[in-house]
From TrEMBL:
Name of the protein this chain belongs to: Non-specific lipid-transfer protein
Keywords of the record: Lipid-binding, Signal, Transport
Gene: Art v 3
Similarity remark: Belongs to the plant LTP family.
One function term, GO molecular function aspect: lipid binding
GO biological process: one example: lipid transport
Residue span, Bifunctional inhibitor/plant lipid transfer protein/seed storage helical domain: 29-113
Species of provenance: Artemisia vulgaris (Mugwort)
Signal peptide: 1-23
InterPro entries to which the protein is assigned, alphabetical: Bifun_inhib/LTP/seed_sf, Bifunc_inhib/LTP/seed_store, Plant_nsLTP
Function: Plant non-specific lipid-transfer proteins transfer phospholipids as well as galactolipids across membranes. May play a role in wax or cutin deposition in the cell walls of expanding epidermal cells and certain secretory tissues.
Listed PANTHER family: NON-SPECIFIC LIPID-TRANSFER PROTEIN 2-RELATED (PTHR33076)
Amino acid sequence: MAIKMMKVFCIMVVCMVVSTSYAESALTCSDVSTKISPCLSYLKKGGEVPADCCTGVKGLNDATKTTPDRQTACNCLKASFKSNKDLKSDFAVPLPSKCGLNLPYKLSLETDCNKVK
């Protein structure tokens, strides 16, 4: 349990550092981490997407109505995947559609967040 909490803390710290680069965004990496935290088990192991994960993903989508917010969310998610090797980006790609969302960009490490509109 302590290791899991430490990983979540590390993700949040990375997200906070990344978010300072996106001052025009009202969204923070801490907000993103909070929204996706129910998805951690799915993002590690795959399988069924928990209902609270979809609630978080939909909440994150609702919170990203501006281009700067979407770019911040994209960069925060990429930073989380880069800093936590237990998370599998292959599980992130289909996550929005599994939650009934159609995002205008792919949740992938290859996504250029600066091009997200």
